[in-house]
Amino acid sequence: MILERFCGEFRWLSSVVLRTDLVPGEAVIRIESASAAVTLRLVGIVHIRAELFDPEFALVDEVVVRELPRWGPWPAEARHLLDHHNNRCALHWLTVVGPNEVEVLAEDLSIDWTSNVLADKEVDRIGSLDASWREGRAEGPER
Known about the structure:
- It is a single chain.
- The chain is mostly beta strands and 143 residues long.
- 13% of the residues lie in helices and 44% in strands.
- The chain is built from one helix and seven strands.
- It has a seven-stranded antiparallel β-sheet with strand order 4-1-2-3-7-6-5.
- The longest helix has 18 residues, at 117-134.
- The protein is globular and about 40 Å long.
- The model is unreliable at 118-134 and 137-143 (pLDDT under 50).
């Protein structure tokens, strides 16, 4: 599954939190664009690889989530993960591709979308209030 809402937009990796001190281990990854943000929570970490070279340059080229079946063949590009297969359940394989790369294999995945449209409308509203205030049309405390 490719996160379709991000197609055609600049995306950036805003945070990666790895909690290997929890049982089961957990990874929370937040990716944002101008119009939306997604939080990916992976629980029951089986494998993780994070190559975070430059936190200032966090653009994301591609975000892919695949379900790897409990039984049956895995795709050829997942062969390097076969030794992590536990035969207990299907596994979720997340790859974030860009200058900074993240790969997580976990038992459970939840996806939480939030829209940045409301934030954009709030910025526009504040900007118009500021313009009204400067022109003396807005009510408020005396200047």
